[in-house]
Each structure stands twice: as C-alpha cells, then as structure tokens.
Amino acid sequence: VRGLPPGGGGSQVADLEQKLSAALAREESTIAREENARRDAGSSATALEKQLGRLRRETDAQMEALREEVAEGEKRERALQAEVASLQSELRRVDASARASE
C-alpha cells in the first residue's frame, strides 16, 4: 500500500479495513431501513386505498338507502295531502249541506 512505511503498515491496513467494513455495514443497514420504509409505505398506501374503496361503497349504499327513504316519505306526504284535500272537500260539502238545511 502506498504511503505506508516498509514493513510497518500492517496495523494501519487492518484499521482501514475495519473502518471500511464498519462504514459498509452502516450503509447496508441504512439501505435496508429505506427499503423497509418504502415497502411499509406501499403497504400502507394499498391498505388505505382498500379502506377508502370500502368506505365509498358503504357511503354509496347509505346514500341510496336515504334516497329510497326520502322517496317513500315524499310518496306518503303526497298521499296525506290527497287525503287532507279529500277531507277538506268533504267538510265543505257537509258545511254547505248544513247551511242549506238551515
């Protein structure tokens, strides 16, 4: 190795090898953590997309049920309005008949 004294650089080479090995291990650990984080983020995103889809389907079903309830309520309201109109007509007829017989 250049720059080492003749016959006396063995311990320096071992130190450099140890430092390089430690640096390589740290780098591999960092890369593994980043890969795990990316994989976890992908899994989380997929899970959230599935949950969002499920919530959308549930919301759509609830909205459809509410639309049906509103339509049924409107139908009942029209029936009641028709009944009220019929009763008012009957009341006017009875009232007119009562006045005529006075």
Task: State the main characteristics.
mainly alpha
Report on this structure.
The chain is mainly alpha-helical and 102 residues long. 89% of the residues lie in helices and 0% in strands. The protein contains one helix and no strands. The chain has one helix spanning 10-100. The model has no long low-confidence stretch (mean pLDDT 91).
Major β-sheet annotation: none
Number of helices: 1
Rounded mean pLDDT is 91
What gross morphology would you assign? Answer: rod-shaped
Helix fraction? over 70%
Can you summarize this structure?
The chain has one helix spanning about 10-100.
Record the SSE blueprint.
Blueprint lengths: L9 H91 L2
